[in-house]
Amino acid sequence: MAESILKNIPYSVLDLATVLDGYTASDTFKASLKIAQQSDALGYTRYWFAEHHNMAGVASSAPPVLIGYIAGATKTIRVGSGGIMLPNHAPLIVAEQFGTLASLYPNRIDLGLGRAPGTDQVTAMAIRGENFNAVHNFPRDIDRLQQLFSADNHTSNVRAIPGEGLEIPIWILGSSTDSARLAAEKGLPYAFASHFAPAYFEQAILIYRNNFKPSRFLSEPYVMACVNVVAADTDEQAEILASSVKKMFLGVITGRREKLKPPVENINAHWNQMEQEAVAQMLYYSFIGSAETIKTNLADFVSKYGVNEVMSTSHIYDQTAKLYSNRLFAEIFK
């Protein structure tokens, strides 16, 4: 039963370029390349980077640079952003950057867009300056991007060269119901951040589907759900490996953000009950265990919510274990 449910579901990767304790961003990028090349060979559909700033443990502050790095060393996997935080950038600059990428790697570049700053408010102010309220322009800026990518824009005074005429696929990313309404209104595919914001997932995808307006880009709703994945030979081994991501989210809720820590045998020694419950809530859509356990639970998830694609993100300290987890996850769909 699980096999039939998952058989035709595309599976993808979200890479936050997590920096490991004791290592550097340079080490992170080399590790990302290995995962991306393995994912390419294993039939993953996409490999996306998410824009973050001012975080010691996250090195994905420049997704277009990383996208080029990965696309240039892989063969068929689509590479893109999950996402570019559009209010941080002028639409023209984004169009030129992704137009350049799409010219270098035709039919392999995705542009996922979010409206959040991808950082704290102080850093957001440093990024946006006088454009701090640019978040309110998010729908209009998406329209502007689509115009810049259109071949019809060739008569405009402002053109994206390269970019014009390339019709790069645009996705709306979200962690709330607002993004769902916007994706539905514009008739664009919708990627939900259920890996850290599970509370609104069910409501958001329902709103998206019920309000979807077909467009020239998409005829019917398309939902991609991002989830946390830690796979190992046994459930017990996976739970130990998952202590790293649990400690990472503990840092998020306590304000002590650090590089990704090695796993621990007893995670309960590192938090109180309230912290444990808060982390469990944030990691609600996590698939941790053996391949068989994950297959069963993921099939239930896909069946219940009718998602069209699953994107995994895996915060695993040991890189050999991370590569193995990535392989086990791919095998679930075959």
The strands making up the biggest β-sheet line up spatially as 1-2-3-4-5-6-7-9
Oligomer designation = single chain
> What is the number of helical segments per DSSP (H or I, 4+ residues)?
13
Instruction: Give the total of beta strands.
Output: 9
Q: Strand count, sense and closure of the main sheet? A: 8 strands, parallel, barrel
Rg, nearest Å: 19 Å
Order of helices and strands: HEHEHEHEHHEHEHEHHHEHEH
- Low-pLDDT runs of 5+ residues are none
Please provide a brief summary of the model.
By secondary structure, the chain is α/β, with parallel strands linked by helices. It contains 13 helices and nine strands.
Describe what this molecule looks like in 3D.
Residues 17-303 form the Luciferase-like domain. InterPro entries: Bact_Lucif_Oxidored (IPR050766), CmoO-like (IPR019949), Luciferase-like_dom (IPR011251), Luciferase-like_sf (IPR036661). This is LLM class flavin-dependent oxidoreductase. With 334 residues, the protein is of the alpha/beta class. It has a domain at 1-44 and 228-334. Helices cover 43% and strands 15% of the residues. It has 13 helices and 9 strands. The protein has an 8-stranded parallel β-barrel, surrounded by 9 helices.
